[in-house]
Amino acid sequence: MIDKKTIDRAIDLMFEDVGFKEEPADLYAPLRYMIRIGGKRIRPRLCLTAYSLFRDSLDESVIQPAAALEVFHSFTLIHDDIMDKSEKRRGQPTVWTKWGDDEAILSGDVMCIEAFRRLAFAPAAVLPEVLALFTDTAASVCEGQQLDMDYEKLSDVTMDRYMEMIGLKTAVLLACSAKMGAVLAGASTENAGKLYDYGYLLGLAFQVADDYLDVYGDEKLFGKPIGGDIVNNKKSWMLTRALEKTSDRDGLRRILALPVENVEQRLSKIAAMKAVYDSLELADEAKNAIGSITADALEAVSGMQGYGALESYAFKLVGRVK
Amino acid sequence: MIDKKTIDRAIDLMFEDVGFKEEPADLYAPLRYMIRIGGKRIRPRLCLTAYSLFRDSLDESVIQPAAALEVFHSFTLIHDDIMDKSEKRRGQPTVWTKWGDDEAILSGDVMCIEAFRRLAFAPAAVLPEVLALFTDTAASVCEGQQLDMDYEKLSDVTMDRYMEMIGLKTAVLLACSAKMGAVLAGASTENAGKLYDYGYLLGLAFQVADDYLDVYGDEKLFGKPIGGDIVNNKKSWMLTRALEKTSDRDGLRRILALPVENVEQRLSKIAAMKAVYDSLELADEAKNAIGSITADALEAVSGMQGYGALESYAFKLVGRVK
Fold first, then answer.
1. Which of A27, A101, A150 sits opposite B143 (nearest CB)?
2. A with B: how many residue pairs have Cβ under 8 Å apart?
3. Distances in Å between the alpha carbon of A71 and those of A15, A30, A33, A74, A271?
4. Do residue B142 and residue A110 have CB atoms under 8 angstroms apart?
5. For A171, which DSSP code?
6. Bridge partners for B92 per DSSP
7. What DSSP string runs through B244-290?
8. Is A245 exposed, middle or buried (0-12, 13-18, 19+ CB in 10 A)?
9. Do B128 and A131 lie within an 8 Å CB cutoff?
10. A46 to A186, A196, A319, B16: CA distances (angstroms)
11. Residue B89 main-chain phi, psi, to 5 deg
């Protein structure tokens, strides 16, 4: 077992020790920028936490593949931000806003490749399995982004389709992170499978929590403006559930059709939609869903050695929802 | 030794046997499209040819990694075409023209990942080396595209810089193709190194030949309109050498500044530039350069078992220049 303090230190040093190349400057500067503005490193932390259950020390053969998960995630954000025309990310200008579309495409590409370079640090004995897991996951993440874009064109989506989409776009990468930690540690296939399920379910809970916080969160803690999903008519958990539950679909569609040209219009649309969510009592329902999926995630690994570390990780990840 | 006919058949079947996923349709259709309009499969052919020197039969452990080279190359074309705003590729509409920028970005991404998935078929014993070689190469190709974009903003580049750029953008992937065939076959480090040099030099010759054919080629054989580099003021071998050699740089710059709004203007600019190249006798010089670099490539592998196959491959690749 490796303690949390050791993992914390490894996460802090992860992108200090091993940086990116310097030249050509325009190509590599966006990579450093994205990592620098980067968030809580939840994917490498999950990988190291899973690894810590079965091993007593960390080395490059797990730290670099764990870093690959963060690098890959950052790559998807660079490209998603172009497609979604998002101008801000974690309060900072996005790469395409700062460097232009072409640079954002190319720097994203080299960041994707950089993820695979770091993956190659895995021990040779497990590299084939790690590479297969990672490539399947990476393709799924792209499929999730595709569904996200497809669903934008639909007037509404069912809860099943919503869950499928966030499963691909968010949950598989957390599932991969947890399983990869187990595989790198040489854990049994059974434990690796359980950790995959744990990561997957936790990923679903995390995304539902994110959708909840977009409406009911504290802007400072959330890190982005409240109501962004409402402004963009995003097929979030909240909207999907509201469309299922409301008896006044026409009223809901009128709110979806409201213009968002200026700040005033945006605030008024957010307020109107929030009033619907309030009247449908979605806040409690969302919190219950998050709690229940998180419980399922923990159930998947119940009795595993070092369970406490997995419980702490889960509560830290979705604990923002109170 | 594996004969050419067996390699030809493997190349023909390469993307028939193992296709791409069907769903989501918009995500995977561009991959099939790019492979279908794809050209001469020179990279997988080089990989299989190098492999054939040391082995007597082909199997998935070399065919899939060889296919990965073509898939990766196609991915770079999808993204390059967005950046370069190219509307046609091999006489067909480019992916971004057909499906839009967002689809082209995302389908390119999943195609890059697909390349790594196929690479994972390499035998476990050589997978670490193959993965390291491939990721280093892939990053270099992105660096080459970056230099290409950077150089577009410069008024001229030196021949050294031109060679560095095509080295990264074109030659490293051919070098990787040849070396990977050797590594997959379990060839000696010495032979793998020689094949790397052979592929690299051949890649340089291939790119100079491409630049030559853009001016002096037969449009039907060349597969794209003659004079594209001239219209786009591309820093080709021809232009780089002309800028070095001319005693009338101002005259050359006046041609570079000519407008290309309509067909007439484009044809007139092409004719003006071609007249300069003719007066500087660049056609012969280019052919000599191509011949000399190709000779260096063959020198790198002289005396190797199965040398004849490498010689045939080289002449087929750059033999379009007569």
1. A27
2. 122
3. 10, 12, 12, 5, 37
4. yes
5. I
6. B89
7. HH-S-HHHHHHHHTS--SSHHHHHHHHHHHHHHHHHTTHHHHHHHHH
8. middle
9. no
10. 16, 11, 15, 40
11. -145, 120
Nearest-by-Cβ selection for A127 from B108, B128, B150: B128
- Give the chain A residue nearest B111 (alpha carbons): A139
Please judge whether B142 and A26 are an interchain contact, meaning their C-beta atoms are less than 8 angstroms apart.
Answer: no
Helix (H) / strand (E) element for B231: namely helix B228-231
- A105 inside 8 A of chain B by CB: yes
Interface test with B, best of A135, A165, A169, A173 (most B CBs within 10 A): A135
Query: How far off is chain B from A64, nearest CA to CA, in Å?
Result: 14
Packing angle between helix B189-216 and helix B237-245, nearest 10 degrees? 70
Q: Which helix (H) or strand (E) holds B93?
A: strand B92-93
Query: Contact, A67 vs A184, CB < 8 A?
Result: no
Nearest to B109 among A21, A135, A142 (CB): A142
Residue A278 corresponds to which amino acid?
D
Residue B99 CB contacts under 8 Å (≥ 6 apart), including other chains: B26, B29, B30, B107
Question: What is the b/e burial string over A210-219, where b = at least 16 CB atoms within 10 angstroms of the residue's CB?
Answer: bbbbbbbbee
- φ/ψ of A89, rounded to 5, equals -145, 120
CA nearest neighbour of A257 among A228, A230, A227 = A230
Which residue has 């669903």 as its token pair?
A: A151
Give the burial class of A156: count Cβ atoms within 10 A of its Cβ; 0-12 exposed, 13-18 middle, 19 or more buried. middle
Q: For B70-99, write each residue's pLDDT tens digit.
A: 999 999 999 999 998 888 888 899 999 999
DSSP secondary structure letter of residue A167:
I
pLDDT at residue A62, rounded to an integer: 98
Contact B126, A7 (CB under 8 A): no
B117 and A110 within 8 Å at the Cβ level: the answer is: no
Give the residue from chain A lying closest to B126, CA to CA.
Answer: A124
Give the closest-approach CA distance of A183 to chain B in angstroms. Answer: 16
Cis previous bond, B24, omega within 30:
yes
Chain A residues lying within 8 Å of B128, measured CB to CB = 120, 124, 127
Which of the residues B75, B109, B136, B140 would you substitute to probe the A interface, choosing the one with the greatest number of A C-beta atoms within 10 Å? B109
How far out from the chain centre does Cα B100 lie?
A: 24
Q: Token pair of B66, please?
A: 């060889």
Interface test with A, best of B146, B150, B151 (most A CBs within 10 A): B146
Which pLDDT tens digit goes with each residue over B128-180? Answer: 999 999 999 999 999 999 999 898 888 788 999 999 999 999 999 999 999 99
What's the pLDDT tens digit per position in B220-275? 776 667 898 999 899 999 999 999 999 999 999 999 999 999 999 999 999 999 99
Q: Does the structure show a pLDDT above 60 at A18?
A: no
